[in-house]
Amino acid sequence: MFVVSKLFGILSSPLNLVLLCLVAVSLLGFTPWRRLQRGLLVLLTLSLLAVAATPWSALVIQPLEDRFAVPRLPDSVAGIVVLGGALDPVVSAARDQVAANGAVERVTTLVTLGRRYPQARLIFSGGSGSLTTQELKEAPVAKRFLDELGFDTARVMFEDQSRNTWENAVLSKQAMNPQVGETWLLVTSALHMPRSVGAFRAAGWTVLPYPVDYLTSGHKGAWGFDLGGALSRLDTGLHEWLGLAYYRWRGWSDSLFPGP
Predict the structure, then answer these.
(1) Using CA atoms, how far apart are residues 87 and 90, in angstroms rounded to an integer?
(2) CATH number for the domain whose boundaries are 73-215
(3) 146: three-class secondary structure by DSSP
(4) For residue 163, what are the β-bridge partners?
């Protein structure tokens, strides 16, 4: 099912769907239905124009990011769970230096909160979600990054076997064995937080969400004209919405759209 879920994610990407549609329309020119080609090409062009002008950040990403507000931090916490997805183990290995992506706030927030709560137990959960490079894990890269930042990595448990958010929840719980009544912070990207909270609840672990790595300002999105950016934002948001539906179907989430 891991392979199936990854292949579905690839095929459901708006960028890939556009390419597949262009291929299909092009091939019509070599079939008895080639007279349909012009009409479908016009339809595809108009669809792309509509996509380019639509504020997808506000429509598909902002509702995810607004689902959980940044909480008022308690005086003490038992521990902090930080989910992977911020570092690229493949590029890091190839270049022999830490390669981070736009979600690097997940790791830097571990430093900030770890220093705020010096007695808290810490875990970074990140293996490999790749179909082809399972041997390259994110957790060792996170350890190197934290070492370079001067953080005491002896405090951190590095979980490196998880391949998705569900496994983040299950394996982190097994590693940390949280007790009833303890407060644990969950750190991940804001748009990823609903699916993450749903997975942790389904795994039997109630956490306090601490969202980071926001992509939207929280204000109403503006109409514009940017096909590349629009497709990228649509891809990002659609991935999470489809993920929520898939997790609920698999029983990996306690609800379709987890909330506070």
Answers:
(1) 9
(2) 3.40.50.620
(3) helix
(4) none
**What pTM was estimated for this model as a whole?**
0.85
Residue 103: CB atoms within 10 Å: 19
Q: What are phi and psi of 150, to 5 degrees?
A: 85, 20
User: What are the structural domain ranges in the chain?
Assistant: 2-64+225-249, 73-215
Say how many C-beta atoms besides its own lie within 10 A of residue 224's C-beta.
11
Tell me the pLDDT tens digit for each residue of 99-138: 999 899 999 999 999 999 999 999 999 998 676 778 899 9
DSSP track, 19-83? HHHHHHHHHHTTSTTTTHHHHHHHHHHHHHHHHHHS-HIIIIIHHHHTSSPPPPPPS--SEEEEE
Which pair of structure tokens corresponds to residue 211?
A: 């969202």
Tally Cβ neighbours within 10 Å of residue 13: 18
For residues 206 and 198, give the distance between their C-alpha atoms in angstroms, rounded to a whole number: 9
Instruction: Report the alpha-carbon distance of residue 49 to residue 39 in Å, rounded.
Output: 15
CA–CA separation, 76 vs 184, rounded Å?
10
Query: pLDDT tens for residues 180-234?
Result: 999 999 999 999 999 999 999 999 999 999 999 999 988 776 677 777 777 888 8
SS3 state of residue 122: strand
